[in-house]
Amino acid sequence: MNPPTKFLTYTVPLGLAAHSRAEQLRCHQSNAAKAKQVYLNSLAVCAVQLYLQWHGFETDWENSDSYNPATSTLMDVADLIIPNYGKLECRPVLPNTEVISIPEEVWSNRLGFVCVQLHESLREATVLGFVQEITTKDLPINQLQSLDEFILYLNQFQQSASIKQPIQLSPWFQNIIEAGWETLETLLASPQPQLAFNFRRAQKASVERGKLLKLEQAGERIVLFVRLTPADDSEIDVSVEVLSAESQIELPQNLQLIILDENEKPVMQAEAGSSESLEFQFSCVPGERFSVKLVLGEAIVTELFAI
Questions:
Q1: What's the confidence (pLDDT) of residue 278?
Q2: pLDDT tens column, 198-222
Q3: 41: left (phi over 0), alpha (psi -120 to 50) or beta
Q4: What is the CA radius of gyration of the chain?
Q5: With the C-alpha atoms ordered 25, 26, 28, 31, is the resulting torsion angle positive or negative?
């Protein structure tokens, strides 16, 4: 049984990256049935992750229970964290299935339950729809709500949730730094020549911190540096730079670095190509806000800042 034809659905390809991630999680299981469950759950999570990222939502699979081998062994779980929102449960649906069985152990602490139909070849998946809550173990597919309602639901939730606060940069000069932003010495604990080079060129009056950003879907880790230097006319000079955190020196070729103004309008944009780093320099006045957005394929990470 399929959802009503008027339903908005979303079909995504399940390529090598999706299957590699599923295999990585599956290989921790010695029981064949559990291994298959983990594999299919992982593909469902991957499909929902792609769908959400396409709509501009950030996701954090690596900190979800479904990414934890110990938790996946003990539970039939397919959750996906949306930072600052909560968790979604992403349930796989096999072809020719009319009723989805959702285990009681995942009924609580969820924003909703998204059902993903895996195609016979497992090379594609269709995000069918969702329900906000579960009151019975067996959920007929024809009771799913449409995906257009799902986005509206998430947007309404965002309005009622705490709005993501910008990272305050001026306190950095008083050594008041938000969690997650590390000193260069900490980041240099894993020696990388490029990072060392940038450390040496930092100006004495400036303050600089870096953060490791995970572009999960693309399987890449990027280091974002923000350096602040006081200017003569009460402005602050800002340098934003990204480097690869992996063993290779060059950035991923299609990585885009975008600077957005406080109206979320792109004002600077560049693509890595074969570059080892991308950097933008600009000036801000106290109270001004800007965002740094990294895009690599379907993977998107955005950091909001305020001077």
A1: 93
A2: 444 555 588 999 998 887 666 788 8
A3: alpha
A4: 22
A5: positive
